[in-house]
Amino acid sequence: MADGFKIEIKGVKELQSKFKNIGDELQKALSEAVSAGAVVVERDAKIRVPVLTGNLRNSIKEFKKIESSGNVESQVGSDMKYAARVEFGFSDTDSRGRTYHQASKPYLRPALDENRTQIQAAFDAKIKQVLGRYK
């Protein structure tokens, strides 16, 4: 009959605690990174938006941030009624019977598409900052 052996692992509770802390910190870093990316989009959209009075430019902001079960989503845009008409264009008759053929002048989508590298860099920096504390 073979002799049995015993393995004892010490520090499991401490390790579990560190993993929980990393998870909590990564969730916070993710939230901060999403907002940092939104700032990049907001800044560039304000440069790109066609300006007559400046009202549309001044209204562009991160206006909605949703956090749920490990996911974070941010929306950058404007609450001005005509913001979508500027972004997407408008060819139709409005509620007052006026007919428009307004060409699109995108400012939000290009601000997102052309800044993906900066947005990714914001994410990378936040994640590396958290993971660097647990070496």
Structural description of this entry:
Strand 3 and strand 4 (99-102) form a beta hairpin. Helix 1 (12-48) runs antiparallel to helix 5. The chain has a two-stranded antiparallel ribbon with strand order 1-2. A two-stranded antiparallel sheet has the order 3-4. It has helices at 12-48, 55-59, 83-88, 108-113, 116-132; strands spanning 61-68, 71-77, 90-93, 99-102. The protein has 135 residues and is an alpha+beta fold. The model has no long low-confidence stretch (mean pLDDT 87). Helices cover 53% and strands 17% of the residues. The protein has five helices and four strands.
The largest beta-sheet arranges its strands as 1-2
Low-confidence stretches: none
Q: In which range does the helix fraction lie?
A: 40-55%
> N-to-C terminal Cα separation, in Å?
44 Å
Summarize the main sheet: 2 strands, antiparallel
Key phrases:
135 residues; alpha+beta; two-stranded antiparallel ribbon; two-stranded antiparallel sheet; 4 strands; 53% helix
